[in-house]
Design a protein that fits this description.
Elements lengths: L5 H8 L3 E6 L1 E2 L2 E2 L1 H8 L5 E8 L2 E6 L6 E6 L6 H17 L4 E7 L2 E6 L23 E5 L8 H15 L5 E5 L6 H6 L6 E7 L7 H7 L11 E7 L12 H11 L2 E8 L14 H17 L4 H7 L7 H13 L4 H9 L14
Parallel strand pairs: 1-6, 6-7, 9-10, 9-11, 11-12, 12-13
Antiparallel strand pairs: 2-3, 4-5, 7-8
Helix pairs in contact: 2-6, 4-8
């Protein structure tokens, strides 16, 4: 991406410590800050290792800087502060960097050690109620890959289920089209049913999704509804739990109704699989569409089923460790590297001075 940011990342990886100051909007770090964190992933290899029953990327470089972060707290609720703090600590954990928070108090700055904590529990899940869903439906595709994404495939299946229940007035919008954000945000209150489908990027929404969220203004109209489906390549749903409470809190901040969040892991590579291999997944996505159109909420039975995979089972961890010795666990990534002419450069360290 030829936007000049490469110099920032070169400085980042060659530093002993970095200080990152985050502006906040609508209860989370803003889209520009989120995009900066998303693109730090280039400092890691695509290959996976397991830590505490979860997948994570292998290091590309020999050392990584200590991360010192500061984020604006004015106008944030205590819950929102906790969500951001936990999210940034979790991000540093995934990036295998020590993490400190900068606190500005009484005209002085001090640092506080930050340790990874368990994510907040769901906040509004008990308030979800079935309803007779009517009016217009907008499904937002939050994947930066747009029409070439797994999210697009999922949306297509959801729409099949919705139409089986009589929902016809359905519009799909790709949030990668950032030039349309302002218009869509201004008209957001005119749509009764809003479903956001997007991949997990560094434990939260992609930066382009947050850039849309930050434009939304308080509506204070419970006839407007928001629901979410977060999909990830990593199989365990725990990866998305640092985002989940924020998706509830933004509906509270906007004054709209929350229709639930479904988290589904293990979706990397579904475009490479034959139709038969994806049949069960696609049937489930159609079921989500039927439930949302008929009951006005995310399918609670599928939500419960998916969250059984919170962490990788011990047996799976042992099997993965054995397979990793053979190199088989790298097959998918090697295939993509070769397809893009990057296989010979897969261990490159381009930013080292």
């Amino acid at each position: 991406m030829k936007d000049g940011a490469d110099q920032l990342y070169k400085d980042y990886i060659n530093s002993d410590e970095v200080v990152i100051l985050f502006h906040t909007e609508n209860g989370f770090i803003d889209g520009k800050g989120k995009t900066f964190l998303d693109r730090l992933i280039q400092h890691y290899l695509p290959y996976i290792k397991l830590r505490n029953g979860e997948c994570g990327h292998l290091k590309r470089y020999d050392k990584y800087p200590i991360i010192n972060f500061y984020f604006e707290k004015d106008g944030l609720s205590n819950e929102e502060v906790m969500v951001i703090n936990n999210y940034l600590a979790r991000t540093a954990y995934h990036f295998q960097s020590p993490c400190k928070e900068l606190l500005y108090e009484s005209n002085s700055i001090r640092t506080a050690e930050v340790e990874i904590a368990k994510p907040m529990a769901e906040v509004l899940s008990k308030e979800i109620t079935e309803r007779k869903a009517t009016g217009k439906w907008v499904i937002y595709n939050g994947s930066p890959r747009g029409n070439r994404s797994n999210s697009k495939l999922i949306i297509e299946k959801i729409m099949i289920g919705m139409r089986e229940q009589g929902a016809e007035n359905i519009v799909v919008r790709n949030l990668i089209n950032t030039k349309e954000h302002k218009t869509w945000a201004e008209n957001f209150s005119s749509t009764e049913n809003n479903l956001f489908v997007f991949p997990l990027y560094v434990h939260a929404m992609p930066g382009s999704v947050m850039k849309f969220f930050e434009l939304l203004k308080p509506i204070h109209n419970k006839e407007v509804h928001m629901a979410f489906l977060v999909q990830s390549g990593f199989p365990e749903t725990s990866q998305s739990y640092y985002l989940r409470p924020y998706l509830e809190l933004i509906t509270k901040r906007l004054g709209v109704s929350f229709d639930g969040t479904i988290i589904k892991g293990g979706l990397e590579g579904i475009q490479m699989k034959p139709e038969k291999a994806n049949k069960r997944l696609f049937d489930q996505m159609e079921q989500i569409g039927r439930t949302y159109a008929s009951k006005g909420i995310m399918d609670l039975s599928l939500k419960k089923e998916y969250e059984k995979s919170e962490y990788l089972p011990k047996g799976t961890q042992i099997l993965y460790s054995i397979l990793s010795l053979t190199g088989l666990t790298n097959f998918y990534w090697d295939l993509n590297l070769k397809k893009n002419g990057a296989y010979e450069k897969r261990f490159a360290k381009p930013y080292v001075k």
